[in-house]
């Protein structure tokens, strides 16, 4: 089990009478790049919330880097990059301040920043090439830069696992490519990347693992084995003629 | 008239010193909280709480305890009731708030119509800072200083709570505790400000300064400073106007704040309309 970053074992999540995730089992290895796909409402965000420790499974167990989700939160193992739609871009906050928020989990009760915190923020900004924009208000950035800020926040947090919720939504092709290149270089330097995406066309070139979500995990494994017509069409309840499968 | 004399002359009266001090602390406390409230998008909730405290004030008057205690109890009651109904029906939150606060406000009116004189009713609804008693002044000063101190000490935590609560939760911060602490501070601040501006208008103190400052800056620390300046300035204008012109304090404060907001809005609107043209001219040169 040493090579497994995230393990879900027969996880059930209910909201009242609704079963959001049923009997989900999944083992995501370290240093992998996993694409999570499924229809809207299929349970992708519930899966993410369970991994982040925001919802507790009714039954089953979740293990993050060998810890339970609450302990994993304290260690900051998992960092989350929100969907652009869910961020208030008018918020009076600078790039630097957003990245500093990644450090809040380890700071004292008044959340005063130490020298180590400032160093981590600087490093995060440098890694994503955003140092020159650190004083900008977050709304004054391009779509790709906005994503980079939140990736820097994840890096400043010191997370091993990055969860990205539809990071490519609304980005043009060039920006998407450079963002993918950044994520792949992070994967090379040892991070585990997990992203929810609707972009089936670019998926095979990007992700080395795929998780298919339809109220449960109907398939997980290396892209070559799982991203096949039969399984993907089952995930989306219909024919996908525009996607080419190997 | 000499401006200094104009400002100092009223201060020879103890009631006016009290009024100035109380107005200032009300201005500061409301301004700082308003920055968070506006960014969180909870203005309507503030409005709901401020109306819902009326029966608390009346009941406190009836049984002879400080009105702040009654107000606080009903403020928290309204918050809990709104949360409980929202979580257990399909009715949307704004409708739930509307029902809860009007019902409690109406209960207050019913109680008042039977018990309190119309003069006192006016004071509760619209505020009266010049006639504030010593004990009420100390009460206001005490709880508002305390709530301001708490907000400032934990401002970074409240800021992440407003900006990205999911991230806060994923870092293991106690988001539920922060949520209810914030609501309590809102209830405390409303309670402490009622004496000065009244139940009807206190919500303006909690929306307008933050909104005005939000228009003027993209930095949160600057936003806090501008909001405090706008708010304290308006509060003092309100207190002095009451003294010199014998007009309502709360009404004046809120009217001045609204005028400042509108001035800033129109100034920026006009500026942005002309800015592109100026830029093109420069490029042409």
Properties at a glance:
heterodimer; A: 246 residues; alpha/beta; six-stranded mixed sheet; 9 helices; B: 285 residues; mainly alpha; 86% helix; disordered C terminus
Give your account of this protein's structure:
The complex is a heterodimer of chains A (246) and B (285). Chain A is built from nine helices and nine strands. Chain A is an alpha/beta fold. The two termini of chain A are 31 Å apart. In chain A, the strands form two sheets. In chain A, strands 5-6-7-3-8-9 form a six-stranded mixed sheet, sandwiched between helices. A three-stranded antiparallel sheet of chain A has the order 2-1-4, with helices on one face. With 285 residues, chain B is mainly α. In chain B, helix 2 runs parallel beside helix 9 (155-163), helix 4 packs antiparallel against helix 5 and helix 5 runs antiparallel to helix 6. The radius of gyration of chain B is 20 Å and the shape is globular. The model of chain B is unreliable at 279-285 (pLDDT under 50). Chains A and B meet through helix 2 and strand 5 of A and helix 9, helix 10 and helix 12 of B.
